[in-house]
Amino acid sequence: MKNNSSYRLYGRTKGRKNKINNQFLEISLKEIDKNKYNILDIGSGYGESTIKLAKVDKQKVVICCDKYIDGLNNLYNQAKLELLDNIYIYQGNVHQLLDQHCKIDFISEVWILFPDPWPKKKHFKRRLINHDFFIKINKFLKSGATINIASDSKSYISQILRIIHQIRNDFKWLNQNKLEWDYDPVTLPETKYYKKALKNGLNPFYAKLKKL
Predict the structure, then answer these.
(1) Which one of the listed residues 41, 66, 116, 152 is annotated catalytic?
(2) Is 116 noted as a catalytic residue in this protein?
(3) Which among 48, 92, 129, 135 is least surrounded, fewest beta carbons within 10 Å?
């Protein structure tokens, strides 16, 4: 097992606030029932996706993972305001969460909405979505689990499409038809980064995969 120092967090972690709300819930996933419908929201940003997922079905558990403290504090405050008690929060690296806290066959659904594109070619290796990531997360997914991905970065979308092809023996691409690639804010979380993409004239790409 890696030690904590090996899980590097790139980019900004702190904003206006430099620490998490004192009432913040940092969790051990061992506390969560493996038999529940457990959703992992990776890179939850300001929490719009986590809140929407938690409200759709309060019997489902939503575990959000992000590094940015201001966004996590915003999520905590919104969840408290809406009386949502099915949200768990992890501040840190998703690889560390999986390696040190997650159980085999634990996750029913994964959301990765607008992950940091790291647009400079020298930083592509920092991107979350790659072949190794799918190899790692596969063992934590229940049979039939789904993975939802969205991006507005052309180079990242090209990379995602290549990865989907590479993992085709383990995951079925449910919306392969190009007409179904558009991000629909009616059924999908309308996040800050989705709105930013539209403002910049970009058409966000959405893919839904199912574990075979």
Answers:
(1) 116
(2) yes
(3) 135
